[in-house]
Amino acid sequence: MPLKLPDLFRTFSNQTRIEIVTMLMDNFLTASEIASLLQIDLSTVYRHLQQMKKLGILTSRHLHGVERFDFSSPHIFRMLDEAISFITELKGFKPISCSEGICSYYLGGELDVIEPDQLLDMRGESCPIPDIQARKTLENMNPGEVLLVIVDYPLSGERIPVSIQKEGHEIIKKISDKYGDIKIYMRRRENA
Fold first, then answer.
1. pLDDT given for residue 106 in this prediction
2. To 5 degrees, how large is the angle CA 84–CA 90–CA 92?
3. Residue 78 forms part of a structural domain
4. For the segment 80-95, what is each residue's pLDDT rounded down to a tens digit?
5. Structural domain of residue 155, as residue ranges?
6. Within this chain, do residues 56 and 99 fall inside the same structural domain, yes or no?
């Protein structure tokens, strides 16, 4: 069955499918691993994986008797990346420069010992928007500068440190508070 453009966009109109492909951006995972990470039913995950595989969005390989899933093409990742860039532009997501105590004021004086250079508040946004926005913000910072990203979506709290470290940046500290906010302090890598 040849994939048509409306089919592709319809596939990505489902948040669970977006979360699944977000997880596959960095990993080659099984349906069980994805279900465990997303904390949803295995049969639901497998149904989504099979649908995306049938459309040609994902591929799979059997290793030691276990089926592992991955993207079929880097074009899918780039398409999602561009779509997220478009959404973040429309919403006006921009990091706050932490000069002159602005971040301490923004956080109600609850700044940790680490003084960030920039703050990116992504509360209210779900994967993969916080992940990609954090990566792009870090890339535009000077080497050695510290970024504080605040999220309230648990999957972003797990994914951001993994994807940032894979790009060579340093995760300094990750703090979860009683309100469900997750603060991730990260330092831009020294060499570009």
1. 65
2. 100
3. no
4. 878 877 887 887 777 8
5. 91-187
6. no
